[in-house]
């Protein structure tokens, strides 16, 4: 079993930046994928970015060039640096761990225009 604790959401003006963090604990496998998903009101949850334990990354087209995912394997922590935030980035952001599809509790990101 894996527990995920997120932090770093909040309110920011359009064009601003936020950094999300997610710390994993429990049975952490050496080969895993950690990522960030988001869910806006009335919409389905979607992948924002993911990173394998090898460092390989994957991004949604809508965030490429603005968001950067990184991880600290020693601390089982994943980060999401979000720059040039837009109102369309407003959502609850969820940390995800695979294998097993574990989820964090979610953190709200709000961007004012």
Name some characteristics of this structure.
113 residues; seven-stranded mixed β-sheet; four-stranded antiparallel β-sheet; globular
Compact overview of the structure:
The chain is an all-beta fold and 113 residues long. It contains no helices and eleven strands.
Structure characterization notes:
The protein is an all-beta fold. It has no helices and eleven strands. The chain has strands spanning 2-7, 10-13, 18-26, 33-39, 46-52, 57-59, 67-72, 77-82, 91-98, 102-103, 107-112. Strands 2, 4, 5, 6, 9, 10 and 11 form a seven-stranded mixed β-sheet that branches. A four-stranded antiparallel β-sheet has the order 1-3-8-7, with no helix packed on it. The chain is globular and about 40 Å long. The model has no long low-confidence stretch (mean pLDDT 97).
How does the SSE layout of this entry go?
Elements: E1 2-7, E2 10-13, E3 18-26, E4 33-39, E5 46-52, E6 57-59, E7 67-72, E8 77-82, E9 91-98, E10 102-103, E11 107-112
Parallel strand pairs: 2-11
Antiparallel strand pairs: 1-3, 3-8, 4-5, 4-9, 5-6, 7-8, 9-10, 9-11
Alpha-carbon Rg, integer: 13 Å
Overall shape: it is: globular
Strand content: over 45%
Distance, first to last CA: 40 Å
In total, the number of strands is: 11
**Range of helix content:** under 10%
The biggest sheet amounts to: 7 strands, mixed
User: Would you tell me the overall average pLDDT?
Assistant: 97
What class do helices, strands and sheet pairing give? Answer: mainly beta
The secondary-structure element order is: EEEEEEEEEEE
Low-confidence stretches: none
Note the total helix count: 0
């Amino acid at each position: 079993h894996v527990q995920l604790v997120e932090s770093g959401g909040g309110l920011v003006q359009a064009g601003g930046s936020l950094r999300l963090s997610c710390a994993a604990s429990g049975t952490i496998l050496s080969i895993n994928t950690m990522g960030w998903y988001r869910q806006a009101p009335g919409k389905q949850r979607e992948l924002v970015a993911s990173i394998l334990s090898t460092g390989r990354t994957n991004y949604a087209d809508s965030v490429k060039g603005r968001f950067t995912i990184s991880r600290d394997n020693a601390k089982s922590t994943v980060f999401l640096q979000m720059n040039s935030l837009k109102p369309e980035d407003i959502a609850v952001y969820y940390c995800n761990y695979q294998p097993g599809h574990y989820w964090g509790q979610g953190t709200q990101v709000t961007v004012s225009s």
